[in-house]
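Record format v2
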Amino acid sequence: MGINAKDVARLAGVSQSTVSRVFFGGASVTEKTRKKVLAAAEELGYTPNEFARSLITNKTNIIGLVMKGVKNPFYPQVLKEFALEFKKLGYGILFVHTNNYEIEKEDISMLLKYNVAGVIITDAALSLYVTEDFKKNQIPLVLFNRKTEKQDFYSVGTNNMAAGRKIAEYLIAKGCTDMVYISGERNTSTSIEREKGFFDVLEKHQLPYKRYDSDFSYQGGYETTKKVISEGNIPSAFFAANDIMAFGVLDALREHSIAVPEETKVVGFDNIDMANWPTYNLTTWEQPISDMVQETVKYMMSEIEEYTGRTGKVKIPGQLIERKTT
Amino acid sequence: MGINAKDVARLAGVSQSTVSRVFFGGASVTEKTRKKVLAAAEELGYTPNEFARSLITNKTNIIGLVMKGVKNPFYPQVLKEFALEFKKLGYGILFVHTNNYEIEKEDISMLLKYNVAGVIITDAALSLYVTEDFKKNQIPLVLFNRKTEKQDFYSVGTNNMAAGRKIAEYLIAKGCTDMVYISGERNTSTSIEREKGFFDVLEKHQLPYKRYDSDFSYQGGYETTKKVISEGNIPSAFFAANDIMAFGVLDALREHSIAVPEETKVVGFDNIDMANWPTYNLTTWEQPISDMVQETVKYMMSEIEEYTGRTGKVKIPGQLIERKTT
DNA sequence: AACTATTTTGAATACGTATTCATAATCAAA
DNA sequence: TTTGATTATGAATACGTATTCAAAATAGTT
């Protein structure tokens, strides 16, 4: 179909090998022939065929990015940052949306078929066989903002437990005495860790607390809060496991004319753009997306350079962003 | 590195050709050998190398999806729908985030290098040379929710002008007399068309109107409304070119204690999930994402099957969703 | 059984590139 | 210039698959 290296070689009066050397870089080519080749390539509109290239090198410049939630604006933001960062490095992004809670066999297959250079899983959980599939093929894998009980991965996240603790201390300092934690899906490490840090501190201070199980969604925060209100005891503070649930909390409170931060306080998690919108003005914990992305990319590139399969848990510190809901 | 067809062939006691035939489909293979091969493949964990495949067929199962805005939740939603739809058909998605207003040369190059089967551009604008690059390579292209002045593309969107008209008629019927349109970026077809339909009707009714230029962002809607308020004349209705701007409008109004829908009314566009949140309860125009995606996929697949380069403008009708802001 | 028509299979080849290995060209030093 | 060392180039090959072409096996018919 298209123009190939042989065509360019013919026009430039050199061999195909030389054309390859010009475009691959790192090899020794005379300045004169390089110019000849580049001129010919320009004239013909030649672009190296990435597939043939990958066939030889057994490497691709594609990173697989697996994502589940797009309703939480946090994740599109993450996607964007990854896209920009990898673009700088000449890598493309194969986007895989996984619908179910766990990454599906189909999704893995897609990633393997295209021999991705690395995989980032941002939202979904993954089970054992996934481990094996990627390890067997020496494909570096990063769990972004999620961990499994098993330790054999590299994961990048924020220090959820410390954040939970800090938030508890902050609320106590503000005079809160009894608090409610609204969890995300109960099997996600993020929700569990935030809860643990939060409750640890409350227990140490012998303060009463209660957990309501929800699902990281706006509706979840909203309905849960309505339930809390209907039970009659308004706590002195709500800590929601992410921002959009906190928005649901705030809207439910507003609907019942419960003043924030006077009658009760609300803290979220993520610090998505919307947290700064005047309607919400939400006090929340900032997840340093850029730093987390940078860290992920750094590991990924080093593992692509030379695969070691090393594991680890990197926790990028975040910070409390104080606004008007506390 | 990994397992290849030859390995499977050896284990199954057949030739590589037969393995290929089993996995490519459409060819004639005995049920018995098929089972043997599949068993061997399963045992070894074989997946056909898509790159070698593409080298032969000169086709890929990758669709390039170019997107600019991720702050507007409308687009992540679109991304998700495309991902799911194409996954069903065995296609992967190469996600390209373009930062600038126009799709960049770098982005095009990425798409060409990977020889994508088709390209969908959702948000960004594109200039002439892009046209040529894709046409030359017979790569089908769809403009999703955007059009250019040039007619030589296939575009899928909603009928923005008709929607603008309907919204105007609706507001007039509600008794509004002077209205404000808050535009998106001035060079986007969507914003221009919505405006045109809207103003056409108002002019016909000889009603006063005014346009404020904004940028499709929440901040834009918010600041613009503050400006409108500071000018002293509160219009009887705002029509914002998308929902998140409408949210900005509502928040600005709320801040100034201007009652909606009593003192003024607000209409958005898109009907993103958030429009249904209790804080906003926004009356808006629903863009039928699913239908638009379906239509895009249909065209894409037919052009992949057999490239014709045919152009057209498909407009999927939407509908007014009436909530509490009017 | 004998033959033909059809289906299934294997060997060989092509796709476009990177890379090894050998050869040719260039350079440095005497 | 001669020699030796370095560099630039080309021919050949490999990557993993789809596909053509011929051979083998099977089914169908008499």
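Residues 14-18, 21, 27-30, 33, 52, 54-58 of chain B lie near DNA strand C (CB under 10 Å from a C1').
The two ends of chain B are 63 Å apart (CA to CA).
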